[in-house]
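SEQUENCE-TO-STRUCTURE ENTRY
===========================
What this section holds: a protein sequence and its matching fold, both as plain text.
Question of interest: how does this chain fold, as expressed in C-alpha cells?
***
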Amino acid sequence: MSTNSIKFVSIDKLSEERIIFPDLLRILAIFFVILAHVGSIGFVRFPVSTFNWHVSNFYECLTRWSVPIFVMISGMFFLNPQKEIPFAKLYRKNIFRLLVALVFWGILYRTIGVVQFAIDSDVTFGAVITKMANEYSKLFFGPVWYHLWFLYMIIGLYILVPLIRIFTKSAAKKYYHYLFLIYAVFGSFLPLINDSLLFANSTLEINFKIAELMGFGIYFVLGYYLYKFEVSKRARKWIYIAAVVSVAVQIMGTYFVSDKVGIAHQLLFEYSRPNVVIQAVAIFLFVKSTSLKLRIPARAKITISTLSRYTFGMYLMHDFFNILFAKIGFTVTCVNPVLAIPLRTLATFILSLVAVWMLDKVPVVKKYCI
C-alpha cells in the first residue's frame, strides 16, 4: 500500500472530530445497568420494609434510565439522515453482528447452567443431555439469558431503521412534538393509570390503547431529536427538577405499593413510565450540555472513546461476574448493603472492563462478539 493512501491524524485532531458526550453517556449507562442488576438481587429477595430492602430499592430507583439511554444513543446515530445506512450494511454489519453476539453469549451463559446442573446434582449422562437440549433451545424460543433481551429489542429497532429514517429525514419539529405528545398520553401516562387502577381493583381497566406506542421506538426517536434540536436552558432546568422529583416519587411510590402487596412491586419501574422517560431525557441533556462546556484534554477524549467502545461487551459479559461473586460469597449483604451494593457494582464494572479489554485482542471475537 502506498503511503499516499494513508491519512495520518493527530491525537488532537482525532479528539476534535469525535462527539464526546455519547461516549460519556455509554460509560455512565453501563455502570448504572450493572448497579441495577446488583441492586435487584436485594430488591427481590429481602423482605419489604426491612432496612436492606429500602437500600436496594433506593439504588434500583437510581438506575431505570440506563437502558433507555443506550437506545437513545443508537437512535442519535442510526436516524441521522446525514449518515448513509444502506440495507446491505445494516443487515450484514449491524444486525448480523448482534445475532452472532446473541448466539455466542447465549451459549456461554446456558453452558454455565448445564455445568452447574451436572456438578451440583447426582444425575445421569442422559439427564445432562436433556438439560443441554432444554437450555440451548432458549436461543430460539425465548430470551436466552435475562439481560440479553436487549439484543432482541435492538435488533427489532434496527430492522425498522429504514422506515423510521423516512420520518426523521423530512419531519418538521412540530411533528416530533406531536409524536411525543401522543406517546406521553397513550404510551406512558394511560398505561400507568391503567396498571394503577388494576392494582386497586382488577375490574377497572382502560381498554383504549395504542399498543404500537408501548415499546422502545420512542427512545430511538428521542435520542435523535435531542441531538438535532437544542433545548433551552430554562426548559432543561425544569426537566432536571422534574427528574429529581420523579426519582423521589419512584422511591416512595415503590415502597408504598410493595408494602401494600407484601412483595417487591415494579409498578414504577417499566421503561415506558413517565418517571423513567423524564429521567432518561434529563440525563441525556445534562451530559450533552455539560460536555460542551468542559475542556477535556485530547488524550482524555481518546481514553473515554476507548472505554465507550468496550461498553457493549461489558453489558454482554458482566453477569458472569454476578454469578461468580454469588458463588464465592461476595453478596450484597457481605457487609452493610449501603456499601456492598456499590462495591460489588464497581468490582463487576472493573473486571468486565478488563475482561473485554483482553477479548478485544482476539480478532474474531473483537469483530463480532463484543
Notes: The chain has one domain: 24-86+171-368.
